[in-house]
Amino acid sequence: MTPSEVGARAELAIATALVAAGNSVYLPFFNPYGRVDLVYADSAGTLKRMQCKTSYLKDGCVAFRTCSNTGNVPVSYAGEVDVFGVYSPELDCVFIVPVDDAPTRRCFLRVAPPRNGQAKTVRWAEPYRLTPVGA
Known about the structure:
By secondary structure, the protein is mainly beta. 13% of the residues lie in helices and 36% in strands. It has a 5-stranded mixed beta sheet, covered by helices on one side.
């Protein structure tokens, strides 16, 4: 698949998961190539700007980039979006990660215990998992 197809698949999976979780989803119409992929209303009715990402599994973690890399220049999303919507094709689930909770370049959400048994500074995936209403 092309990068555009991968991105479109992630956006669809994330939008579908948001609706299944009881949220309203809005798509940008006049700026399809902007930094905001979706806008949704959370349970409190607050609008959140979202950048959608496709993750990959690596060493027991869901991993995704938290910056764009146009022309080999990393550009943070801080101040432009509120959350990352992360679609994991391997796990077939979606995670919602606030930009403030994510490191600048790449984020790892742990789905399996680390081999060294460390747990103190681990960013666990489960608190960020989006669950459907009634699940």
